[in-house]
């Protein structure tokens, strides 16, 4: 269902495709199994690659002996760091070698790679490689890593090329990848004015992306030119091109990247080192090489969500006004920085939540440890801080005797107010989301209901959510074909979210063409216009904008030709569904796109082609009275809002939590394809449910204990409630196409606190560490009972 406020920054769409639940363009090939993913591809003479991971979390590399592996029949190439250029890579800090060089920094870090005639031979060759290590003491806790005398993960940290702003605090801590501090108002002076103060420490775990398709790359080297072509499972063909060229010391013109169908990413398929390693194997072997990671290798070698520890204190006045907040965030970025400094920046940026809190002090660290590197993951630092913030908001409401919705509504940011740091809130629709969630969930009645069975307690909880939509640069090209059909070309990668279909709908809506008359061209760095990445809730918002702009330019070209052909001023022309330009008020007149294209191609003007580009403008952090230390200027994006409600049932004996149903209300601006939007909301909620209740990467002495789907627990079909109600509000605004706003990440952000607030409502148990397993809930219940008995 949707509720709409009729306003839009884009021209009115032509035809009726916008806002309709259109079937995915690739639906047939996926449901029939004809879709081609990287691992489905085979080339003549193709070899198979595999990587050897370190058995130690922290050790010096003393020597390699690859003699036996190289001598094995069927082995065509063996690589260690000694055979590769000495180039570190990294999206923020250039701190990561392709294969471990000098020392290993986490258990599972790739130290060697092999290409062989089949995968079994490649794996046997890995076992034949003899590497001698000198064990070093690991540092496994980020707060321990910040203390003087802790083992140093990167002795050369200060020599790395870095985009990270330095600070005295970071300089004083060798294991700090980044440090930042945001202050607004005078927090130290106002605590005495707070009538109620809540303080606690919250912990969120490392979470695995669990994309359906493990990381996979097929590399081919042209024997004459040396140009490398990669077919790869990636979220950005251009980032894969850049990192491969940089790592191998090649010009980008010598690297081509093509994305076939992608089986999910969630942030885990950006900046992947398996791509240049596969390319290096293909160069060394002189043959195509495909490397598809096993699920275990993927979990051991790739990335996770950042584990985070959040120290938070919040104060309010007795009339329910938030007044002050102090936050200390410590993100475990693992052995390499990856996106860690930017994830930490995002966590800090949302530390105030979607509320007016005039006095705030945020201190944030991204810290190196000897664990698997952490990187981008749906929400990008925001789920961690929202968990702490929204649980604490509920506690404050309880102490003030206020309904959780009422307390949030009193403090919700509105249109025209400023975010922490000074950015304007251009479409402050949190109030509308909260009010709709309260009504849809029948909140008042459900808060008062009784347990459904002996030994079970039922509760309902809410979280208010904010995120951003849009980031960095995109471009698009559209070309009118000779027969009046259209080709749309962008560099955006559809990783399963349906963006190819949504972008095609945008083009169709501007030009009035049916979907079958639009050819959407897949991403290929040789021919596609640039797009930064599928991530940051940005594809429909940012790429959709440039598709609309390019189509508007093409429409103007069509009108200029049609004006001559129909002998009518441009301002009197109109587009009609089906690819027709006609005279306004004269339904009998009109000329087809095909006729216009023929005139342009063969008589006057040349091909009808249009290109648009856009970069989301950066917003300096520190305006509006904010003091910012170490905080980069950010392409913060357009603020989007949501409210999420969860109803749970808790077993008093075991602490086991069952999610009964959920309501997820989002202001999507304009739903380009409502079915796809609802699917994103439901999928995001389930992934957030995993973070809340079951998912956690576990280490012992630096070794990952659960690197398999049998031991890492994602929600299964029996765990997911029958009813996850996606509710779409439509308040078109901002730079997105037809006023569309993003929904992909925000759909996950508030799930964990909504569930934990429901657990507290049901039982009184205060859960501060995720996931809220039965054991942790039971411990919280016992702690509550013990505290009550002492009182």
Automatic annotation (TrEMBL):
Keywords: Membrane, Transmembrane. This is Aldehyde oxidase and xanthine dehydrogenase. The keyword Transmembrane applies. Its cofactor is Mo-molybdopterin cytosine dinucleotide. Transmembrane segments: none annotated. Residues 1-20 are annotated as: Disordered. One of its GO terms (molecular function) is iron ion binding. Residues 32-137 form the Aldehyde oxidase/xanthine dehydrogenase a/b hammerhead domain. It comes from the Bacteria.
């Amino acid at each position: 269902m949707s509720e709409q406020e009729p306003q839009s920054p884009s021209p009115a769409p032509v035809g009726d495709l916008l806002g309709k639940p259109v079937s995915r363009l690739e639906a047939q090939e996926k449901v029939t199994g004809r879709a081609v993913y990287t691992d489905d591809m085979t080339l003549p003479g193709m070899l198979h690659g595999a990587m050897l991971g370190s058995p130690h979390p922290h050790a010096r590399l003393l020597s390699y002996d690859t003699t036996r592996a190289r001598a094995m029949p069927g082995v065509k190439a063996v690589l260690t760091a000694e055979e590769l250029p000495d180039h570190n890579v990294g999206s923020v800090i250039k701190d990561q070698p392709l294969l471990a060089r000098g020392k290993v920094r986490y258990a599972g870090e790739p130290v060697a790679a092999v290409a062989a005639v089949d995968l079994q031979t490649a794996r046997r060759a890995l076992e034949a490689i003899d590497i001698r290590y000198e064990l070093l003491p690991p540092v496994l806790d980020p707060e321990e890593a910040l203390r003087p005398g802790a083992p140093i993960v990167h002795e050369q940290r200060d020599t790395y090329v870095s985009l990270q702003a330095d600070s005295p605090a970071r300089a004083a801590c060798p294991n700090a990848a980044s440090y930042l501090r945001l202050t607004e108002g005078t927090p130290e002076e106002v605590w005495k004015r707070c009538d109620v103060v809540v303080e606690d420490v919250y912990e969120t775990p490392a979470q695995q992306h669990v994309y359906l398709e493990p990381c996979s790359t097929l590399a081919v080297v042209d024997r004459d030119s040396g140009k490398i072509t990669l077919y790869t499972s990636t979220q950005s063909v251009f980032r894969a091109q850049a990192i491969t060229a940089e790592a191998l010391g090649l010009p980008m013109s010598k690297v081509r990247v093509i994305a076939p169908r992608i089986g999910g990413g969630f942030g885990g398929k950006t900046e992947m080192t398996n791509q240049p390693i596969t390319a290096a194997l293909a160069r060394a072997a002189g043959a195509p090489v495909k490397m598809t990671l096993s699920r275990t290798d993927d979990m051991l070698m790739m990335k996770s969500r950042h584990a985070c520890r959040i120290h938070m204190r919040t104060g309010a006045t007795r009339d329910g006004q938030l007044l002050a907040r102090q936050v200390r965030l410590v993100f475990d970025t693992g052995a390499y920085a990856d996106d860690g400094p930017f994830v930490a920046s995002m966590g800090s940026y949302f530390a105030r939540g979607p509320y007016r809190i005039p006095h705030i002090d945020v201190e944030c660290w991204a810290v190196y440890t000897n664990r698997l590197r952490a990187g981008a993951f749906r929400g990008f630092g925001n789920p961690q801080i929202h968990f702490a913030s929204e649980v604490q908001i509920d506690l404050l409401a309880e102490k003030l005797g206020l309904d959780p919705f009422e307390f949030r509504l009193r403090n919700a940011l509105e249109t025209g107010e400023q975010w922490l740091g000074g950015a304007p809130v251009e479409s402050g629709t949190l109030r509308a989301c909260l009010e709709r969630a309260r009504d849809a969930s029948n909140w008042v009645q459900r808060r008062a209901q009784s347990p459904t069975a002996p030994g079970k307690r039922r509760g309902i909880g809410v979280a208010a959510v904010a995120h951003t939509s849009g980031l960095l640069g995109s471009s698009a090209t559209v070309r009118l074909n000779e027969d009046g059909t259209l080709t749309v070309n962008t560099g955006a990668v559809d990783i399963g979210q349906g963006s190819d279909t949504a972008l095609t709908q945008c083009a169709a809506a501007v030009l009035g063409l049916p979907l079958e008359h639009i050819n959407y061209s897949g991403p290929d760095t040789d021919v596609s216009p640039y797009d930064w990445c599928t991530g940051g809730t940005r594809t429909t918002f940012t790429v959709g904008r440039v598709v609309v702009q390019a189509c508007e330019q093409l429409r103007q070209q069509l009108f200029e030709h049609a004006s001559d052909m129909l002998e009518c001023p441009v301002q009197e022309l109109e587009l009609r569904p089906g690819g027709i330009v006609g005279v306004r008020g004269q339904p009998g007149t009109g000329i087809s796109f095909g006729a216009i294209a023929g005139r342009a191609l063969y008589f006057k003007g040349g091909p009808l082609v249009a290109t648009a580009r856009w970069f989301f403008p950066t917003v300096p952090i520190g305006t509006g009275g904010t003091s910012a230390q170490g905080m980069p200027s950010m392409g913060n994006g357009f603020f989007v809002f949501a409210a999420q409600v969860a109803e749970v049932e808790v077993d008093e004996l075991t602490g086991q939590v069952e999610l009964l149903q959920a309501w997820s209300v989002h202001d999507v601006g304009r739903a380009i394809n409502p079915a796809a939007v609802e699917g994103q909301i439901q999928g995001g909620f389930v992934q957030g449910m995993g973070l809340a209740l079951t998912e956690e990467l576990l280490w012992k002495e630096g070794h990952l204990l659960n690197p398999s789907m049998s031991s890492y627990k994602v929600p299964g079909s029996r765990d997911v409630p029958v009813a996850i109600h996606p509710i779409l509000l439509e308040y078109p605004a901002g730079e997105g196409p037809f006023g569309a706003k993003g929904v992909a990440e925000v759909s996950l952000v508030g799930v964990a606190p909504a569930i934990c607030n429901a657990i507290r409502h049901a039982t009184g148990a205060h859960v501060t560490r995720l996931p809220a397993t039965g054991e942790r809930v039971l411990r919280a219940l016992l702690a509550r009972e013990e505290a009550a008995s002492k009182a």
